[in-house]
Amino acid sequence: MRKVYFNGKMIPENQAKISIYDSALMFGDMVFEMTRSFNQEQFKLVEHIERLYAGLKILEIPIAMTQDEMLSACYETIDANSDFFEDGDEHRLMIDVSRGLLGIYQGIEGIESGPNVIIADFPLKWTVSSMGKLFDTGINVVIPSQRVIPSRYLDPKIKNRSRIHYLMANIEISKYEGNNNWALMLDEDGFVAEGTGDNFFLVKNGEVITPEPRNILRGISRDYVLQELCPQLNINATEKNIEPYDVYNADEAFITGTPFSMLPVTSINGLPIGNGQVGGIFSKILAQWSLNVGLDIEAQIKSWQGANTSNGPTPYKFK
User: Which residue from 161, 180, 244, 301 has the highest number of Cβ atoms inside 10 Å of its Cβ?
Assistant: First the structure.
């Protein structure tokens, strides 16, 4: 059985549990990160941990571990689970840090107080096994009635577990006719913000454009495209306000997210973006990413088709 890092100990996965009185359960009071590997090497793990600690600082969740100790704990978790991964599997770490028990419950016998640090490691293919076909068909983004929460109320730049607004958007979009529908949320001013776990880009006249970062989670993959891949390819990339009108009239579009890296967006609300096909700029950036990490990202994800056949609910299926 896989092992989970739980407050300094490696324990069996089925024993990694927090109390019903934990602040995470009461308030969604937890900061987290999800990572992936390429060729079994963690990608941007330091950047993920830096973002984790930024959230812990702002939410004032006390944690004794340093960032270097957290990094070491991540690699310890990977090593502890290496025998449970098949050849070609990639590692997906889930790092959760909760505040722990609320004060009124801290006297309960047998329940430890203080923050909980939990690191799990499971195969990436569980997350992306149904996504291979999307590299060919693209995604239809649908704008739900649910808006993102403005940063003055709940700062989305802190990657936290208070995500019911994401869930509500996904439930709404799951009822939309057709296939491959993913939510694209607007902010309170009607500008495009983000997906429910991904960042959005459009391409117009050869320029890559993504929403301003104030009301979104500033994704690690988003930053990689903006700050490293586009400069490598001499593609101009910018952040600015985007309206749905701009998406309807874009030449192409795509999203970024840690598990799948990039996926093409070929339509919005059922209407084609550009010619309705996977765009050339998208393909060029994805090819460079694949070159940088030493594997064909698209081919790898396609090879995992059907790896997870569970009928349970997912972020995109609730029945």
Answer: 301
